[in-house]
Structure formats: structure tokens, C-alpha cells
């Protein structure tokens, strides 16, 4: 655990169930929480308009990029977005794992989602990580908005020390699970019904793995 400084948030052991409870309390209160994933550390909020604005300010990120939602099940995705057969194949074969699916939102959903989630494309990003911590949070809170824990355009945070150095002053607390396992961000694939899948970002999953799972 890193030593606390004047501008540093509380740093809690991610393996402690009480830490998950504290993170949920902080998220419900509108705070930004540092969370581990299997790829890089992220920062998370409950996806309200004001919370997302604060997340973008903390990260110095432009609004047109959008912010992905981390989920605990495919059912959480289906409640918000259209899941074509190709997207379902990828989800069933590669989730949990370092894959972000970019999908068209449902037009008839009763859930009103804030604009910063969509970015310039009007689509939604979803990831079901291979890590218990963000999945526990999504299981209890519903889909949570998560983006990498770094200033926009700067290197990703692979440890809590790097996270604190990059963006610690904006956080309510951090869940520390040690250095991340992967270190490479997720691969991002966009799939709209009736269109060919498009790899938007080459990442932790090789292109061949994506193509193989689509067959």
C-alpha cells in the first residue's frame, strides 16, 4: 500500500470485502474510485451526468470519446444495447476478458443514459473484465462507467503508485490489488446489426483471436 500524502485518497486493499463496501458507498455518494482490472487501472463512477462530467474533468478527456460501461453479465448489456449475433459470439467466447464491445443503444429502453457515455458516435462501449473487483461493483450497482486511470494521452497506470501520481487528487478512494496482470488496454470492437465488425483499437486481444471467435 502506498503511503498517504496530502493530496492522496484513502488506499484500501481490494481483497478485503469491507473495501468493496466502502467503494460502493463512495460511488453512490458521487465520488470517483480507482479500481483494478486485468489490463490497467481504471477510475469509476456511477454513470450520472454530473459524475461523468467530473470524471472527464479529472482525466482532462474530451467528451467526444465516450466512456465505457463495465458490466457483470451479458444481461446487463442487453438491457441497454442491441446485441447482434456477431457481438453475442464475441461476448460468449471472449468475456470475461480484455474486450470492449461498442454497440448501438436500444431505442426503446426505459433507462435514460447521460450523453457523455456515447461520445461522438452515439454508440455505447461495454466491457466484462476478467477481474473480480469491477465485476463485484457492477453486480451491486449496475453498469458502472470506467475509463483508464491516467490523464488523457498519457501512459496507462499499471500500479496504484502510478494512478496516484497521475490523478490521485481527484479520487474519493482507491482499491489496491497490486500491479495489474496485463498492462495492455482492451481491444475495442464495434458491431452494428447488418454491418461487418470493426476493430477500433488494437489491444490485449490479438486480431486473430477476434476473427477466430467470430467464425
- Net shape: globular
Average pLDDT score: 94
State the CATH superfamily name: DHBP synthase
Residues in β-strands, percent: 15-25%
Classify the secondary structure makeup into a structural class: alpha/beta
Name the helicity range. 25-40%
By DSSP (H or I, 4+ residues per run), the number of helices equals 7
Characterize the biggest β-sheet: 10 strands, mixed
State Rg. Answer: 16 Å
Which architecture does the CATH hierarchy give at level 2? Alpha-Beta Complex
Low-confidence stretches: 1-6
CATH class reads Alpha Beta
> What is the number of domains?
1
Element order, helices and strands? EHEEHEHHEEHEHEEEH
Please report the distance between the alpha carbons of the first and last residues. Answer: 44 Å
